[in-house]
Amino acid sequence: MDEPRAPGPKPKPRWWSRPAAARPDDRPDDAAEGAEERTGPAAAQLAPEPVDAPAEGPAPEERAPRPLHEPDPYSTPPYGGPGPWAPAPPVQHPVTTPAQGTHVPPGMAQTPHQAPGMTPPHGTTVPTAAGPVPGQSAPPQHPGMTPPHGTQLPPGPGEPHHSHQAVPTAQPAQGAQWGGYDPWTVVPPPTGRERERKTVSRRGAWIAVLLIALVAGCLGGGIGAYAEREHASGGVDVKLPQAPVEKEARSPGSVAGIAARSLPGVVTIHVRGSAEEGTGTGFILDKRGHILTNNHVVQPAGTGGDISVTFNGGQDAKAQVIGRDTGYDLAVIKVDRVSGLTPLPLGNSDSVRVGDPVVAIGAPFDLAGTVTSGIISAKERPITAGGEKEDGSDVSYVDALQTDAPINPGNSGGPLVDRKGRVIGINSAIRAADDGSGLGGAQGGSIGLGFAIPINQGKRVAEELINTGKATHPVIGVTLDMSYTGDGARVNTKGAGGGAPVTAGGPGDKAGIEPGDVITEVDGVRVHSGQELIVKIRSHRPGDRLELTVRRDGKERPAELTLGSASTG
């Protein structure tokens, strides 16, 4: 049951929003009053709404407006009362605003025109003539302080009252107001000097960018290379162990010791003729400049060719032929006005045994100072070479030493030395795998079959060539049948050029040899062909005595003779 209330005017509702007109379905006053009582605490916290004029006398009785939503039972603002009906913001006209930090001279700042009741911009100085609105107590204002939002400001002194519609006002000159700043002014194009200054500035900027990119690329590349190296080495510099340099001398009997003593006496020979040229090897015989080599090495020079010698130290010298012999495939050349020569000592080929170690030195394929080693594979190996002439005058017959020391084209004429560094042979031929040629064979590689002229034979021929310019050959005074295919060497039945096959008064005639006889042994060594017989005979000196075994009519008998002499020019 409602309590009695004192008569008098009903208090005006203090909603945040303006009350609406009463409608027929509004609730009775008691409901509104109940709502007012429930929302009283929340309404008491709100600021009083400004009014246009002070109330005079008792207000007529009004019905409480119906709130827009149900009252909040918890009285929680803003849900404790109806929501505010905020007035629409007044229309404001934009004015030119100076840039931030621009100093505005006093008296030049103009406040834009505002409609009545419109709140001036924040920071606008309020004229002192504007007082509080009647019926509303205004909070104390400090000079220049902006009043609260929504405060209606009276017109200033001398300012006519304007309606809500803004009337455009004359704007002061922009240059005078903001010191010449106008954001809407079109900037004139730059002059030539300004354009040049900008171009130079841009060019400098590009150059700076390029320099920075170049430096960055170099730094990146260096860092990348360093990182790659560190990654490859695990971040640690790799140092592999190595033995120190050994300065001790090698044993004189070793290959290194033999080569060290022999190389200074070996030379490389270059020959150039009108039709061909070639390269070979030779070795020094004495300090006078005599050099021994193969005949087929110097043969391309002919009679007017050029021969040059390169010593082990690199010195070059011209050489000339002293004498040469095609039958032994030997030649002697000489260099003049060369000092410091190192002759090689000569050994004795009769003392050589199969299996003895040997070292071959030469210039295979013009590779000077090449050293190879091996052993003596065999002795008294009959080797023939040449034969390009129809009369066979260029055929060489050699009772050679066989070695497995690698010998290649260019080694011809070089020394074959024993373990004491003494020359025991002259490297002359190889048995190539391509065509099986002999002395001075085709340009094939070594297959371990090399042949050297015994130094005993070479020494005798060299002495004769140096002393007389020609060499002598031992002969037996018979003509052999080189087409005979049987075992042994058969004496021909007719001589060369229609002469007698057995020279009258010669060594063979004195030993009782007749045409058609077959010689089967020389000093107890079996011979199987006419070539082997010639090789055996030429391995001796003229005047040496030989014991032969001769077969005639199926019977063998001994024969003894003294070797004669024949010279070649």
Automatic annotation (TrEMBL):
Residues 47-58 have a biased composition (Low complexity). Residues 465-552 form the PDZ domain. The keyword Transmembrane applies. Residues 1-198 are annotated as: Disordered. SMART domains: PDZ (SM00228). Residues 23-39, 60-72 have a biased composition (Basic and acidic residues). The keyword Transmembrane applies. It comes from the Bacteria. Pfam families: PDZ_2 (PF13180), Trypsin_2 (PF13365). GO terms for molecular function: serine-type endopeptidase activity. One of its GO terms (biological process) is proteolysis. Keywords: Hydrolase, Membrane, Protease, Transmembrane, Transmembrane helix. This is Protease.
